[in-house]
């Protein structure tokens, strides 16, 4: 509590002259004109009862991300089920089965449909229940709300408009609030909006001065006021309203608004009044309703159903026409049909009527062409696949204890067809931690630890050098001569590479310090005192420690100060300064205290620096300065900022180290590090006083261009600087992010980054995760006058953007270098115009041509619009991944939405289709599970249509021999068991367990993933091929059996086969043929598949045996059929073997030809693994792995390759020079 009170006395607005220092209302700023449409909201502060009746009754604070509720579940879920074409057909068939024309009983048609639809609806209900549970976790959070006798706790869902809420440090805001006061004296508070716009920098907010006295619970006892403001809208960065309080009207702007799902940081508490609740809040206004998503395979499956339904209609028409002809011309001669007593269905006098009635019979009879069990089998398979995803230990995060979760199983196969990934940045790619890694001081580079990019390049170079050593050792004497010279020249680089690797390997052996990964004994433990330019190094450390706006907090357990900084970079600098011996330990209203460890031998000296002025960092300024007075009375300006900005402001005398520092900065950039330059200048008292007068005038001015005035005055001071050095921090990406992006790029996936963060931050992250690299040509589409209001000026802005897009597209087309890569970078304001209908297609065409795309400063709505543009414009599968509420729209709009279940809220997870705990797990989710699920579902569906065509058409063939009478050649029980028992388990095992290659091989050969986006296993060629295979098998099964059994003796006594014997033999052949076919289709066998495949065949014969033992009353003509009729007949067993072989021979021929002549990628890998070449011939295995990378221009590997080309170029030049010198010096 004591620490909180000390901090509360700080007037934090002193640190924010640009964003928070505003003139008082009394000084001339009047209220906003609030009238007209869009400005109708009225909020009665601290009077929530006023909002319980219309017209002031607003929506509750309850939120829901579910697809259904109790009322809508039944109609919406039924609609979802009957969007499937096959279900509509079976519904009609079930209705018709109640009529006399049905060939089967009504129960046999209604029960399967009810079972399939019921299972699917139950799965939908379960998945939506999970969403409801997660919604309730948010809705039942507690918040401190003012009631009649003080503050008490309410759940979020019960908070109303007008409530006064107290929010503590590190809590989320439960609704959109107007800030009334904070724990700081001047009403400043700090808000983290990472969950909304992805920015990690804390944003200062400031209450109106008139409400600052409301800083304790008792102050709200008699507090009332009225807010009139804009209606709910999705704009996160704007707000217009007025507060009527104490008979005065005060204007409100975004700096007083605290948005739902942002978090209070660096502030003990705030008080606020609720303005927008629930779906009226800005974050929820940016969300969209949970969509119903269907995979591409499922949508294509509907088209196949249409084809089969057309086939069903054709053969039913043929059958009904044939039946009418038979009734008309032949039935009068069939005395046993009693033609003199015709029935409605068999009336020779009305053949058309009989034919139409028979059409219904045929549609139901041949319905086995359309597999009703396909849907329920797919549901079972997808649930099992989802379970495997949930239980995958390789996607388990030990830190959080979270596993991957398939929140919906409808889109499993879609994971294997992704073309474009649209990713959030903050919390998804990054973990918001900066590590101080290297620095350059007075032209000398310090820091020996390597970045991830340097380490990978060094290892690869070492491998290349080793391979070259092997090649050279087998060469001629001339080559040996050159090799000796080269060895002499490359000895140092080899030692250097080895050192880099060793230092990285020893990293884990030392105690890790968060934010500090620097290693160099020259600066540590006071050794910098032995370095030349000691005064410059001392100044460098002091700039790190003093040029900041953080607050120190002492950890009483460790005795070490930690820092609440506005940005991760600033925190890393303070930790670095502390480790170097310059510990920032105290801040007062006007000074900072630094403990200098090595200023005097063996003593700890506290130095006080008086803060005279602080010029904060903004994205436009790209620098921060602080003007201080040291203990000697000297006034200093200490500045840190982007190197391009600082270098432009250097004096002639201050450029002593510019050339070497610029070289170091370039090297740090190539190593993927974020850099800043540090500079200073000394000021005279008079010079400072003159400038300060101008600065105070600008701060207190009430003109419209106040910010511009402030910037101009600040720019006057930040000139004639003296360069001190530069810093290089490593933006700590989430674990494995560069490697994951690298593998995804090698798999042929395109990656877009959509972030609310600043452009320079987004670019730095692009470098860190290798979406950008040195040498890549950046296309920045920006607009200078985005605030244009008139129609003409807006058109001018659009024309300018279109001109930039056209020029960029033309530049890409003219590029002839095959290694050239382009990156498109665009900000949110420009994107507003680029997404309009008359320009969006040109923008998309340009973006598709670029290797990587980064959209920065985008709103949640824009994220969703970009996702929709990519999805609809390219026609390919999109995946969106994010972790915050600002990503919900994007996640819901994409074909697949993936949420990161991190520490920041659960909104993204609740809206997602799949959730993972780290971005790196996306690689396994797509490259392994996505690849498997796609191939499993595709093969499963193709096989399903094959077996149903093979079975269903035999019914039609038999009809031609039975006068199209509607008589089935099979027993009813055979037909019921065919899809339910005899062929269901093998196809489910195919969908659940099939693996063309192992998970390790999937990751080693990422190009295998492209089989999904190219749709190689579910294109029309393959679908029609399987349907043709089914047609061929049906012809072979029926007619080959007919030839064998037509007039051949079936028993020892010479009898021929009757209909039941023929039907059972044909059915036996179908069961054996289709189960052997699925065995040939499988690449990976487990004992489960063996049991299911061969067990299904065995279960048929077991059923036949047991069914034959049942009384003839139930078994009919099948009584003892196996024991007495079929079993003893050799022709029965010979027919099964012959027909099964004949049916599968074409498939065997096709697959053998394909593997030998035109093998697919997985065929080659399977053969290598089978002959153990991956173990015996590592060189070949590495060569094949290097081939199995899609050509890409982004990713860690490409960046390393570029670094290697650069290093090899340097070595080659050095080598050529030394060889020339060697030959020149050798005797002729």
Automatic annotation (TrEMBL):
It holds the Pfam family Cation_ATPase. It is a multi-pass membrane protein. Residues 909-1159 form the P-type ATPase C-terminal domain. The chain crosses the membrane at residues 85-103, 304-325, 356-378, 944-967, 973-993, 1023-1046, 1061-1080, 1092-1110, 1130-1147. It catalyses: ATP + H2O + phospholipidSide 1 = ADP + phosphate + phospholipidSide 2. InterPro entries: ATPase_P-typ_cyto_dom_N, ATPase_P-typ_P_site, ATPase_P-typ_TM_dom_sf, ATPase_P-typ_transduc_dom_A_sf, HAD-like_sf, HAD_sf, P-type_ATPase_IV, P-type_ATPase_N. This is Phospholipid-transporting ATPase.
